[in-house]
């Protein structure tokens, strides 16, 4: 039946030919479709229908619009379900009449029990389970639930998941579409214990962009995950990468793993490194993690891994056992994290609530209150007595405002100590920052003076209110600091130090707040040329959870605005892939055959490789670290590179860094640096 027929109350009521029995004793109506069926079959399968039919039937009053009428002598029961769902339910009842009998319950091998494993569409599974639970078709609910559980739980036992499994098969659908539909279905019906395996396969088979924006079907329809599942997939992928990295890191060095009586330790160590690269490069291999351990082990054993004896808690533990233990370890950790549906999330408020002006007398005086002031500025419950001339001199908005409202024009005008009151719809803190900057900020009158560190809250207030009230020198002061940190003209201008133009404690949590605040501010005020670097810093500093939920440090908090969350998540994925591609040469152990200190340089290369990609790339090295910073980082960790290697690596490093810089705007949805600068609403 078409949905148009169901939802159109004015359409003619139709009879379902498939389920209209001449000897039926009850008429079920779903939408505009009627089904004449047998009361006894419904009552036998469902306690709800059984109880309903056992109740005394009220006398029929054909004059009452709310009363049940009769159709061919049968009472009509109005169902609050779609005709399609009711059709699925009746098909199960009539095509498997034995399914509700004691015989079926006592003979689990009966062919009728296999119906749950041959359902061809998720809509049918969904309808059977939903109506089975709603109307207490106990046997139906249990069988469908067992069928749903069969495939996902196989993953926990280490078996492979097959997309063409008959239970979940949807004709002509891509695997990603099927997985998204399956995840939404499990989430909708509350089968949370079966969600993690399906989410794992979404992480593996569906791109981050499709996870966020939806998967397109062959017919052009876009199927999207529910917002809660989007968060679980994106954060779960990050945790999963770390889990795989931790579980298999022993493959990297082989220290304590190679047995003393190994016949060919060098070859075994090389093969273990090969396995490590297969798992970790270019991203922790989810394919390896979800079912190809045995194949990987077989391939390596051909090269001599069969001679490796692994020593863990017991001597000579075979490699297969260690792989199996690692497999179980990371799956258990990841699944327990991904299936947690009760994680408490912090409530982060980016700005204080702004009260409206009120006639109450419980106002407080702000930091600026001059006895000879000529106007009272009110923001929320705070008042500031300042000079009309000072505000008019620096702001065309205030100048026009004061020129329009002359003293004595309005007898009912509110006044305080003889001064008119002007209500501003801004927070009291922001107005205080603005007035303090006008009166006594060290750089307020000279935007060309040496840039001094400015608190982040002050910078935000000066830019927003400087724009709003047209105070150019305050706006320019804020823009100078944003320009210095977030609008470089080349990678050489990117500062490797943490935000020198802003007052920032050297705390990791606070470091994530700064780019989030700047990104929100740039987006709101139209300083789009600051967005690429600000979002890059968000991706490099903030965790996936912080991108979703925000972060806080002491009294200050920040949360990305909704449009920027998507850009940051997709940008983080793209930047990580760019890092993998740009610095793939780090995995070459013998980068320079004529190296003077080959062993030391090889260790340094391995260290950089592990640091750059552990388990996700350290995005700080993409732009915020130049060559000198990279060398200093290596030497701080007691590693050295010979002069020959440095001479060969530096041009390659600078070249890749420049390429990332040029591609950065496209990572966040802009065409080029020229295009994003042209979008600025403020000249910067």
From TrEMBL:
Matching entries from PROSITE patterns are given as: BTB
Question: SMART domains in the record, alphabetically?
Answer: BTB (SM00225)
| Residue intervals of the BTB domain | 22-102, 371-440
Signal sequence range: none
InterPro entries hit by this protein: BTB/POZ_dom, SKP1/BTB/POZ_sf
- Transmembrane stretches in the record are none
Protein known as: BTB domain-containing protein
User: Which source organism does the UniProt entry give?
Assistant: Panaeolus cyanescens
């Amino acid at each position: 039946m078409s949905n148009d027929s169901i939802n159109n109350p004015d359409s003619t009521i139709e009879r379902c030919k498939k389920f209209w029995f001449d000897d039926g004793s009850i008429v079920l109506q779903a939408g505009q479709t009627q089904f004449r069926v047998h009361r006894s079959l419904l009552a036998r399968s469902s306690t709800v229908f059984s109880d309903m039919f056992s109740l005394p039937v009220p006398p029929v009053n054909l004059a009452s619009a709310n009363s049940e009428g009769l159709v061919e002598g049968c009472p009509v029961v109005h169902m609050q379900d779609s005709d399609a769902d009711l059709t699925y339910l009746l098909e199960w009842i009539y095509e498997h009449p034995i399914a509700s009998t004691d015989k079926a319950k006592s003979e689990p091998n009966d062919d009728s029990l296999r119906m749950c494993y041959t359902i061809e569409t998720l809509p049918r599974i969904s309808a059977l389970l939903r109506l089975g639970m709603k109307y207490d078709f106990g046997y139906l609910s249990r069988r469908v639930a067992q069928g749903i559980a069969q495939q996902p739980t196989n993953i926990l036992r280490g078996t492979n998941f097959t997309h063409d499994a008959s239970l979940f098969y949807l004709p002509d659908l891509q695997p990603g579409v099927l997985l998204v539909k399956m995840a939404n279905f499990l989430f909708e019906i509350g089968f949370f214990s079966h969600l993690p395996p399906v989410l794992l396969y979404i992480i593996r088979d569906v791109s981050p962009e499709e996870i966020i924006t939806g998967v397109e079907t062959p017919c052009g329809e876009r199927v999207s995950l529910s917002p809660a599942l989007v968060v679980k997939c994106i954060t779960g992928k990050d945790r999963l990468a770390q889990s795989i990295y931790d579980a298999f890191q022993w493959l990297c060095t082989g220290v304590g793993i190679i047995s003393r009586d190994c016949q060919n330790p060098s070859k075994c160590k090389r093969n273990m490194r090969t396995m490590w690269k297969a798992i970790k490069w270019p991203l922790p291999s989810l394919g390896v993690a979800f079912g190809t351990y045995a194949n990987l082990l077989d391939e390596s054993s051909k090269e001599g891994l069969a001679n490796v004896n692994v020593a863990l808690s017991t001597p000579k533990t075979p490699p297969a056992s260690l792989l199996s233990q690692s497999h179980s370890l990371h799956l258990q950790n990841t699944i327990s994290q991904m299936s947690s549906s009760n994680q408490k999330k912090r409530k982060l408020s980016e700005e204080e609530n702004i009260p409206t002006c009120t006639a109450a007398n419980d106002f407080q005086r702000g930091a600026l209150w001059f006895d000879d002031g000529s106007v009272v500025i009110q923001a929320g419950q705070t008042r500031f007595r300042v000079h009309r001339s000072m505000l008019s001199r620096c702001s065309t908005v205030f100048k026009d405002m004061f020129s329009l409202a002359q003293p004595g024009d309005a007898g009912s005008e509110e006044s305080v100590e003889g001064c008119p009151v002007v209500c501003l719809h801004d927070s009291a803190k922001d107005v205080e920052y603005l007035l303090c900057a006008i009166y006594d900020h060290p750089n307020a009158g000279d935007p060309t003076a040496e840039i001094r560190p400015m608190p982040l809250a002050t910078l935000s207030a000066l830019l927003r209110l400087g724009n709003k009230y047209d105070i150019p020198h305050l706006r320019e002061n804020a823009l100078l600091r944003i320009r210095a940190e977030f609008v470089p003209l080349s990678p050489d201008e990117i500062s490797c130090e943490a935000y020198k133009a802003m007052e920032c404690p050297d705390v990791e949590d606070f470091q994530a707040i700064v780019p989030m605040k700047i990104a929100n501010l740039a987006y709101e005020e139209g300083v789009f040329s600051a967005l690429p670097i600000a979002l890059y810093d968000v991706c490099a500093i903030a965790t996936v959870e912080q991108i979703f939920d925000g972060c806080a440090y002491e009294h200050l908090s920040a949360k990305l605005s909704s449009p920027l969350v998507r850009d940051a998540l997709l940008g983080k994925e793209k930047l990580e892939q760019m890092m993998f591609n740009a610095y793939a040469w780090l995995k070459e152990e013998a980068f320079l055959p004529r190296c003077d200190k080959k062993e030391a340089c090889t260790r340094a290369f391995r260290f950089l490789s592990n640091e750059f990609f552990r388990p996700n790339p350290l995005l700080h090295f993409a732009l915020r670290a130049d060559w000198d910073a990279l060398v200093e980082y290596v030497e701080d960790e007691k590693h050295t590179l010979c002069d020959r290697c440095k001479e060969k690596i530096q041009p390659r490093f600078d070249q890749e860094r420049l390429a990332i810089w040029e591609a950065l705007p496209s990572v966040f949805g802009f065409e080029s640096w020229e295009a994003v600068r042209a979008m600025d609403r403020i000249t910067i």
